[in-house]
Write the structure tokens for this entry.
Amino acid sequence: MKNNMLSIAVLLLLLLLFCGCEQPQTIVASGKKIKIGIIGPFSGTFAAQGKNGFEGMQAAQKIQPLLDNGTVLEFLIEDDQDEPSRTIAALMKLAETEKVAAVLVFSDSASVLALEAFADRYKTPIMVVLATHPEISKKSKYVTQFCIDDIFQGSVAALFVRDELLIERVAIVVNPDNPYSTRLSTEFRQRFEATGGLITEIVNISDEVDDLSAIMENLRLKHTQLLYMPIKAECLFNILKANREIKWHPKVMSGDGLLASAMKMFHDDLNMLNGLMATEFFGDNIADTDYERRLRKSYASLFSHPPTTYSALGAEAYALLCDTLNRCSEPDNRQEINEKIRQTTDFEGISGKISITAEGKAKRLLFVDKIENGRLKEIVKVY
Amino acid sequence: MADYVKKAFFVFETDSKYLCQKLEENPFEVEITCVGIEQLGGRLQVGLEVIEHVVVAGSVGLIKKVLALAKTYHFGVGLVAMSKQRELISCFDLSPTLDAGIDLALQADIGQVLDLVFCNDKMLLFKATMGRTPLLDAAADSSRFQLLLTAVKQLIKIKLLSFKFTTATEKSVDTCACGCMVIQHHRGTLAAKLVGYNCSCVDGNVSLLISAPFSIYSYLQLISKALIYRRQAGRIPDTVSFIESPQITIAPEIELDVSIDGESATKTPLTCRVEEKAVSINVGSGAREELLDPEVVKKEKVDIANLPKGKEVGKLRNKHLPFFSIASEERFKTLFIALRDDAKINASYVVLMLLSTLLATIGLYLNSSAVVIGAMLLAPLMAPIVSLSMGLLRGNEELTVNSLKKIGLGVLLALVSSALLVLIFSYKPITGEMRGRLNPSLLDLGVAIIAGVAAAYTKSYKEIMQGLAGVAIAVALVPPLAVAGVGLGRGDIHFFSQAFLLFMTNLVGIVLAALLTFRVLGFSPAVKARRSVFIVLLMMILITVPLYFSYNKILKNYQVEKNWQIERFLVNGKYIIIRNIRMSKYENHQIIFMDILARESLSRNDLNLLKQKIKTNFPGNLVIRARIEYIL
């Protein structure tokens, strides 16, 4: 009797275990391929954007190699060197010659804005992975912006500085030739002034400026407490060096992707960025999600260097594209893909949920991070 | 400037013969006559009148022969140590270099008059051991790793034997031990460190260390003490006892080999006697200072409080070490009587129970921690719970039943009195003090277990009884009962069940922890009432289930509260800072309380959008309660 009871108990336990262990569904490769075009700078000064972004996609593809129907995504890469004319040419080639189902763009706002004028002609869904200019997606129903735009970023930066750092006097350093820089600066200034803050000066800095020390000394004399500098990493490093020379250490804030670019270009001087704040799409100390852990593992198995913001955005873009294609009845139908992209709701990204509005704008988390020893330590997380 | 003897014999053996020439050519103008040991007796008898000093170099056996002659003929002895004789050098503080050694050996007027110890008429120079004396004979400069290794090796072989020790005053001790060690000169051994001085050769006594670890637990204690205090003198561990007497007879139940100065020399029974001031030896200045130590008291000393006596000897003899020690009969008797009294219902218990419950209930209504703590101190519930533990451990039905009756009565009194008080009062708020007792979790079980250990421990040692007050405050038995009574008075079954669950958590936790503590402290060789203990254990497992879920809830809330430290929202361009998140649950709703900090005024539309963002990004059926503060 005792033995029988024991056997029944063991059987029940095994049954429970069997029921509890849900077997993951295995997807078998169907042999079908869907071509996906990738445009971005893979050479030149901003090559990190394209290279890191694509590395992220590769890491994500290692985790999820197939769509639910067994189809594999084939990538066709076009290097535009972040020049608008090349970006347009690349789109034409991918859409007309290669007949890709969708295009992912890792170029900057200027290139994307130029490309957008031609997007409707090719009727190909375009996911803009990195560019954040608010005008993106406004001129074409085929262009979707994957990042939060500069209006959100600039507002968050200004309000964070004003309400959390309680800073009253800020100088803005802007590159007038760069739409990303000008737009963020404008948004920041408007928001900051609206909350009673004072912009001590707006400094226009193009790529080559001789006397940065004198400019910074002038800002210091105006009792500037913080420098808001949504500019390229190279220029920002020069300003930090000038500040060091005149022994001035104001708080500094910048925009997204700064650390990612700096890691490639100024790897040995990264400690200069310690303490610098930036609006970002990720943080290094966010609560680990299972997807993030798997992605990090996959990335480490493929590459020897750590992932950057560009890599994370690339990986997320790949995962969202797979999710979109899985929702399509015809995964190679451009029209349907475009519609489904813009119907994305609460997609689980690396650090939180991502939704895409019908207007092709992303709704997602934004972080204000502090850079410490080459890592992004999050200060606040803005929904 | 030192004085030197005029004439001296140098006694050598084959290994030390080469020193003859060196001594003969000494720079102190001492006339040296080299003699072999075999010639010494005859030469001395001839030169009895003139020879006052003998220098000896060689084995311990040779030295002992010279010392025996010195006792008879009253000449002074100088020792020249060979470089390998580290024990000799250390014990007599001799110089390791030959020239300095000869210098010391030939000096006049520095001879130290020392006792000689004879065990079964064999001279003892350093130490005699029999049985197993774990760690005692280890060198004090052994590394911690060496000590540990030796200790673990010996652990396997240790067995307690019956011993009878008789002192010079005919004081007799029948006990159990695994071995003992007679010590004379023992500088540099762990035993020396434990006893606190290096030489027992001027006190007119034989010094005996008795090693008696009664359990693996106490043996481990000995190891840890040896490892920690190996460089500190004067710390005799509980497992080692100490006798000093001019004569000690050691008689184990079985015949044991006795090793004297490292050589198997005789067998038990062993009689060790001291011959006071028998010889004069030139020793180093360090040893001379120690021997002048005024603290050396020449009287019999018997420190055997930790040795088993009476019936305990029978329980331990010829057995390998049990894991836990067995408490002494006397300690057990004292404790058992106290616990039996604690289990009896008396008027003071009823009065104190009522008073503490009423005090606790009023304190809860007043939301006054101070009053509630006062009630905790007044509460007499801890005593019968500890008695119940002992009753279950020893399988003592009378103690168990009495304790249960007393606890039952206490619970009943507390529930009824607090419920009645609620019915009488018209003012019935639910205060923070009450709410704090409505969510028991695994942490409360942890508190109960630790408090149970502390309760049993303090109860076992009279000298730390004052610790019980702290235990009573930590575990707080009456306030949960009072809250449960309030629940009964309010007719709120959830209120009652949660508070009563907390009380049961405390009760079961304390009973089990106290039971195990008594077991570890050796108050029972085994858990006797296994069935009853199994029931208590089952109760604990059953209680653990809701406690686990409750704990999980606390963890989740903590995680949410922690995550919300950096959460911000941008709603219609308005930056919203969230602060002071608190989580609470009402039926199926998760209520989140928060403070919102904003610069611009928030419209209903803004708040709806905020709510939507929160609901999108955070799981669960959240109900938001917010307080808005504006940045001006």
Observations:
- Chain B touches chain A at residues 563, 566-570, 573, 575, 577, 597, 599, 613-614, 616-617, 631 (CB under 8 Å).
- The mean pLDDT of chain B is 81.
- Residues 144 and 228 of chain B are 9 Å apart (CA to CA).
